[in-house]
Amino acid sequence: MIERTVDYRNVQRQFKQFRMTETANVLPHLLREAEQHSWTYQELLVALCSHEEKRREEKITRKHLNWAQFPFEMSLEDFNTLGDIALSDHQINQLKEFD
Predict the structure, then answer these.
(1) Whether 51 contacts 23, CB under 8 Å
(2) d(CA 37, CA 31)
(3) What single string gives the DSSP state of each residue in 15-60?
(4) Using one digit for the tens of pLDDT, what is the confidence trace for 64-98?
(5) Relative to the CA of 73, which of 35, 39, 41, 90 has its CA 20 to 30 Å away?
(6) Largest Cα–Cα distance in the chain?
(7) Separation between Cα atoms, residue 65 and residue 47, nearest integer Å
(8) Against a cut of 0.70, is the pTM above it?
(9) How far apart are CA 49 and CA 20, in angstroms?
(10) Distance (Å, rounded) from C-alpha 51 to C-alpha 57?
C-alpha cells in the first residue's frame, strides 16, 4: 500500500476555488482537532460542512441587517410593549419561539 501525504494547502486552495473560503480558513485547525480526537472521515466532513453553513448564515444575516439600515440593534427582550406599539406580549413571545 502506498502512503500518500496530502498537503492541506492544496485542499485549502480547492476550498477557496469552490468559494468555501470560511472552510479553507479553518481547515488546519479542524484537521488538527480531527487527528487529536481520531475523528472518522464522516465526522470531519460534518464538521467542515457545519462550519461553512454556520459562517454563511452569519454572513447573510449581517448582510441583511446592513441592507435594512436599522439605526441600532435591538433584541426581542429589549422590545417595549408598554408604549404605543402594535404588538402584544403574546405576539412577542410567539416571535421568540421562532429564534
Answers:
(1) yes
(2) 10
(3) HHHTT-HHHHHHHHHHHHHHHHTT--HHHHHHHHHHHHHHHHHHHH
(4) 988 988 887 777 777 666 665 677 778 878 877 87
(5) 90
(6) 74
(7) 27
(8) no
(9) 10
(10) 10
